[in-house]
Design a protein that fits this description.
- 72% of the residues lie in helices and 0% in strands.
- The chain is mainly alpha-helical and 103 residues long.
- It is globular.
């Protein structure tokens, strides 16, 4: 989410465009599913459901907010300097999800 690349820039444009375009908004769940399958589909003995934490609305919106911040506000360097903070936030979120599953 902090990488600077053409696909990330195009994705940020898509995020902005889908705000006012129902067809693009409807495409979002398809992109999420295909992205998860592409990223984790080849992991031996893994199922898509094993990566549910990444597919929650909260996690997807958090990632998208960071991508938009990097692309629109040009704050990538500040985010990179604080990369460990983002790692900690994601770990805390996973812990939170694990606690909810056991309650």
């Amino acid at each position: 989410m902090l990488d600077k690349s053409e696909p990330v820039s195009v994705y940020a444009i898509y995020l902005q465009a889908m705000k006012n375009n129902k067809m693009l908004k409807d495409l979002f769940p398809v992109l999420v599913k295909e992205s998860l399958e592409a990223a984790y589909g080849n992991i031996k003995e893994a199922k898509l459901g094993d990566f549910g934490y990444f597919a929650t609305d909260f996690m997807m919106f958090l990632i998208n907010i960071i991508i938009l911040g990097c692309e629109i506000l040009d704050v990538r360097d500040t985010f990179l300097e604080n990369r460990n903070f983002f790692v900690d936030v994601v770990k805390l979120y996973f812990d939170y999800c694990d606690k909810k599953k056991t309650v």
